Amino acid sequence: MLTVYEPTNLIHTIIALVFYVLMAGFALYSFLALYALNRFGRSKLVSASVSLLYIIIAASLFAAAQTDLNSIKF
Amino acid sequence: MYWPTLKQHFKQNLFPGQQENEEVYLVIRQHWFVFALRFALWLLFVAILVLADQYLPHYASFIFVSPYQEIYALLKSIYLLFLILGLLMLWVIYYLNVQIVTNERVVDIDQHSLIHHKISEVYLSRMQDVTAEVKGFFPTFLNYGNVHIQTAGEVERFVFSRIPNPTAVSKLISDLYDKLPPEAKAPGLRE
Known about the structure:
Chain A has 74 residues and is mainly alpha-helical. Chain A has helices at residues 10-40, 44-70.
């Protein structure tokens, strides 16, 4: 498919920047929580199941947020 | 091929430094009500989202016009992401706080935050005094509270915080101490 050049504006860029900074923080804290759970958790099965469930939910919500970001048009 | 390694991985000790012949008598976490209180606080933040969805169309209808509508949807998605992260953090910190009583010692594993993990242990032979404390309205009705363990030669007391049935736990610890051979007990203690 032909890639079409899409002009962006400053406001959209700033919103995208803030969004990705927030997502970086979210990813960092998620990693810390999952690491602590899998490193120190007593039952590896519970830790792995909760981690998997969390990753699925978080990935779905991230995809929804990304779609919302892309649908912003000024 | 990889099965023994996998089995070994899953069959790990309850806590670091657990001896081969060490018998675990009790593994406890904080009372479920402690987590329920935190969960209720988390639900308040969920309620903010629900109420915003309910009342914003009435009081701020301009938000539902493009491009504000899309920005509002984005903010909602980000809020949801952090809500789910908050719930994970609440549960992880609750789950990783464990107290273990064995026939040789008492181990308190504290997860104060995601990057603050502390393991304290006291040998039963060094124990001086065990106190169960139930204080407050909910602790009295739901039977949870603190167990304080005073050890020989230490100013700071060892505390199991807000555990279920503290009286039974303190009795178990005392009974385990009584079962120790006389030569193992510190002289002059618990006469």
